[in-house]
Specification:
single chain; seven-stranded mixed β-sheet; 15 helices; 19% strand; binds flavin-adenine dinucleotide
Length: 481
């Protein structure tokens, strides 16, 4: 049975991978000339990679980690020390760490917080700990209910001192959704905290050993094509065309470079494109349906990813850093953290600029100039003095609509993977799954979509054994999630 999937981001590729496991024949159609969507990366004329985003993998990503095992590429994840490192704006050039000891959860998290005396006082830690108790005791149902509040509102309701928000949670909110806690739904931060506190290695971080396009997406494409599937680049869906019953008749692909449009017919259709372009593509008759109308409540948030190459080493820290700068979110010296970008003599900083609303329309030169000003504060010894560090080159990647902006009330707008249309499914990080807008969410959504298809449409001609052997990992993971 042939399944046409629009979009070769992680959700589309994961959906195609699990469909091949279940005996279907997927054909993935990607608008751009690069795999990966929000994890896409490019090589410049010097052979240096630059990426859509600085991407971190967490211990609390069971579906992503299982995917790495299934593709036999686990050794590509470079796990770092179990710690979280924050810059200290009031003490330029210094860091404050939350070191997780080798103890079971949640003890390791509690010890990490209690041992850090730079950022919070004892009374602030205790008041924050007490505030978190309902989230830990009442579980996911409580976390979901808190979607009516911003994280700032939630902290106030729990009587958590304002300084806790300023010192820790502005940085965390910007890392999670590229916005500040006064805009971010409490559900997002509480979900992350729950995972981090409940799983021993939940907050342990890994970097991929090279570009996600080459090191993660390509193995997915190889897996899919070796099993009879297909992945086509430069294949934008122009229209979803309907039959007389309102089901999908075919995808119309836009012909590029003067080529005619192409009609593509399959047995089933999946959209793995982000919510913003999906809303534009929806056929007129579907727009009256409540299921699709709900999507109007979701919109991508702007973010900017910068790569700065310097003439010297700025730091030897081999980890993610929370900048705690008003302009920037997280950053890392990729010459330390990532094997393929390694350089013992020169730093390549990859930095996320967020919130980016005011910056997305500005020129690359303006964005780099403002970032360098911030770096002067973060690395005073390297930018002061007679021979300050020199910027050799840069790349700026702007994503005007990235993951959906998780403001309060968004959870009710997230659609299930199953739509009211018999032969049409959705997948993508914005669809309903418990990992919010993340790589883990994208991979899990692809798996859930494949499972939903298998539940409703048996793959004709698929070997019964193939279906059998793959059913159990899917079921196990859905349960884990
Ligand atoms: C700066 C940044 C940093 C991030 N950091 C992290 C992180 O550290 N950890 C983490 O877990 N997550 C992170 N994320 C989030 C993560 O990248 C996304 O959640 C995930 O990659 C989304 O995957 P997706 O498949 O749902 O969507 P996408 O990756 O957006 O894929 C959708 C695909 O559909 C294609 N498409 C669109 N329109 C059409 C059309 N008409 N026809 C055909 N194809 C079409 C697009 O080109 C794209 O390839 C980050 C994101 C960004 C932007």
């Amino acid at each position: 049975m042939k399944v046409a999937i629009a979009g070769a981001g992680l959700a589309g590729l994961s959906c195609a991978k699990y469909l091949t496991d279940l005996g279907y024949t997927p054909i993935v159609l990607e608008r751009r000339d690069v795999l990966g969507g929000k994890v896409a990366a490019w090589q410049d004329e010097d052979g240096d990679w630059y990426e859509t985003g600085l991407h971190i993998f967490f211990g609390a990503y069971p579906n992503m980690l299982q995917l790495f095992r299934e593709l036999n590429i686990e050794d590509r994840l470079q796990w770092k020390e179990h710690t979280m490192i924050f810059n200290q704006p009031e003490k330029p050039g210094t860091y404050s760490r939350f070191d997780f000891p080798d103890l079971p959860a949640p003890v390791n998290g509690i010890v990490a917080i209690l041992r850090n005396n730079d950022m919070l006082t004892w009374s602030e830690k205790i008041r924050f700990g007490i505030g978190l108790i309902p989230a830990m005791l009442k579980g996911q149902a409580y976390v979901e209910e808190m979607d009516k509040y911003s994280f700032s509102e939630w902290l106030k309701l729990q009587n958590v001192p304002e300084r806790v928000e300023k010192e820790v949670f502005i940085a965390m909110s910007k890392a999670l959704n590229f916005i500040n806690p006064d805009r971010l739904s409490a559900t997002v931060v509480l979900t992350a905290l729950n995972r981090f506190l409940q799983e021993k290695n939940g907050s342990k971080m890994a970097f991929l050993d090279g570009s996600p396009t080459e090191r993660l997406c390509q193995p997915l494409v190889d897996y899919i094509t070796e099993r009879g599937g297909e992945v086509r680049l430069n294949a934008p869906i122009k229209e979803i065309q309907l039959d007389e019953n309102g089901n999908v008749r075919q995808f119309l692909l836009r012909g590029l470079d003067g080529a005619p449009d192409e009609e593509l017919t399959a047995d089933l259709y999946v959209s793995a494109i982000p919510v913003d372009p999906l809303k534009v593509l929806l056929p007129q008759p579907w727009r009256q349906m409540e299921y699709f109308q709900k999507l109007d409540g979701l919109e991508g948030v702007p973010v900017i990813n910068l790569h700065l190459w310097f003439d010297r080493k700025l730091t030897d820290i081999d980890h993610l850093l929370f900048s705690r700068s008003p302009l920037l979110s997280v950053y890392a010296d990729m010459s330390n953290t990532c094997k393929a970008y390694a350089n013992p003599d020169k730093s390549m900083l990859e930095l996320v600029l967020a919130p980016a609303k005011e910056w997305i329309g500005k020129s690359d030169d303006d964005i780099v100039a403002a970032t360098l000003k911030e770096l002067e504060k973060l690395f005073p010894t390297h930018f002061g003095g007679e021979t300050p560090a020199k910027l050799i080159k840069f790349h700026v990647v702007k994503t005007p609509r990235s993951v959906y902006e998780a403001t309060p009330g968004r959870q009710q707008h997230r659609p299930s993977q199953v739509t009211p249309i018999d032969n049409f499914y959705l997948t993508g990080d914005f669809t309903m799954q418990p990992y919010l807008a993340s790589m883990e969410g994208a991979v899990l959504s692809g798996k859930l979509t494949a499972q939903a298809i298998a539940n409703a449409h048996s793959p004709a001609n698929a070997a019964a054994t193939a279906t059998q052997s793959i059913d159990s990992p899917l079921a196990t993971n859905a349960a884990t999630a």
